[in-house]
Amino acid sequence: MLEVKMYDDVEFRKRNENFGHKKIEFIEIEMDPDTAFLTGAIYEDDMICSDEISGRISTGYLMAAMASLTQKEHLSKWVIRASENETELMINKANNGISFHFFHCGKWVKVTVDKYLPSSIGSYSRRDTDLWIPYLEKAYAKFHRTYTSIKGGLACFAMVDLTGGIAIHNELKGLTWNFLKNAKDGRFKTLNDLFFLLMDDNKKSDQKLNENYIMTSALIGESESKNEYGLLQNHEYTVVEFELVVNRSGDEIQLVRLRNPWGFGDWNGKWAYDDDTSWSSLEKTKVKLLKGRMHHNGSFWMEFSDWVTIFDSFDICHIPSSSHPESEEPCFHREERCSGQFGSNGTITFQLKVGARRNIFLQTLLDTRASYISNFCCSKLILKDSKGKIIRPRLPLQYPDTDGCGYWKDKNKRLLWYRHNGYLYNIKEGVYTIQFTAVNSMSLQPVKSDMNWCVRAVSKSSRVRLKQIPTVIEQSVQK
């Protein structure tokens, strides 16, 4: 009888012998084949994880993205590979390894890890059956080479890696209720407009998101200590839903429900669970409905205006809702994509044709992993109409004015770091020009000419076309 060799990823363990000054020991986890490895953990309200016992690896951004992912069953099943991994566990006790899917530079890749988990770092569920959480975190560390590489990242990175979607990072600090009052080009005029977009209640069908998105929101701080509102600083929360309610006086109240992926929430402001003053302003049936969604699993309601004021940023990710008929890979129903390598100047130009006014999501991707991200920044993507006028996106909220395609700085004089940059436009029928540049953040010189890139344009309509326009240098070479 042939002996079946157990999958043992010695190379990964060698790369991860240390986490900072801490020595990492990998141990075999006792698994009960009769216990569901993933069943019941597919849905957001069931995911409870904590790194209180894990040495504070600081992957709260990944946990929040994972919790958001589990709100979308078709995506979570693809990434977590629930049925395949459960079968592997029950039949082979994970001796053949456990595999997950991640998205990289326009393509889905499969990452397999062995059954050994680090004992001194890593995230673990409070329920022994949710072993998919530490194993997915380990696979994500392997995807980016080391646990050190994924320490303290951004949710927009993780959401793209986990969903194949288009994520947009937005700063909340400094926004006011009448911001962008003179906005044009389909941008928001007030925060009310932003609320109704996120609530997905826009009456204009060409501006709706159609619920195909997930969100997280972050509080910045030096440590994960509680602030005056009972919220954890330096921590990422999942944004679950938005709700418009009418109180007994007939006033409309904008609410948002967030969730701490660690499974507990101590928000002590308006609309906290025990804030009887706020809840008594609603009809009892509405109170029962809204409180029933909290489940005591770390989720809580707060007013939209308080969320904008207290939280520092939010990441929204437009996710694919279709699957490839043969490979079953998640994909957008309508997507245009170009890819290639940078030339000598690090600038790529495209033509975008739009057949009717609608939402267009654009994204620039670089072939780089988390451990190398700090070496790059990506210039603001510039979209111009046929007259050369710059069209500003609806998202991200901050878009500094500049008419160049080299490196640039925002209002705080910081470089725009590469973060799987995504943009949401609402543009009318026409022909547009797109430019983007990637530069080294240290030298401010163009990235290497052999750096791979991918640009995506996504819309619910087929009346969108994207193609690359050769630069002057490339045209002279072709001649």
Task: Report the span from N to C terminus.
Answer: 64 Å
* Biggest beta sheet summary: 6 strands, antiparallel
What share of residues is helical? Answer: 10-25%
What overall geometry do the principal axes of the alpha carbons give? Answer: globular
How would you describe this structure to a colleague?
This protein folds into three domains: 10-162, no CATH class; 167-315, Cathepsin B, Chain A (Alpha-Beta Complex), CATH 3.90.70; 334-478, Jelly Rolls (Sandwich). It has 479 residues and is α+β, with helices and mostly antiparallel strands. The longest helix has 12 residues, at 132-143. It has a six-stranded antiparallel beta sheet with strand order 9-14-10-11-12-13, sandwiched between helices. Strands 18, 20, 21, 22, 24 and 26 form a six-stranded antiparallel beta sheet that branches. It has a four-stranded antiparallel beta sheet with strand order 17-25-19-23, with no helix packed on it. Helix 2 packs parallel to helix 6. The model is unreliable at 39-45, 50-55, 180-186, 401-415 and 473-479 (pLDDT under 50). 38% of the residues are buried. Helices cover 19% and strands 29% of the residues.
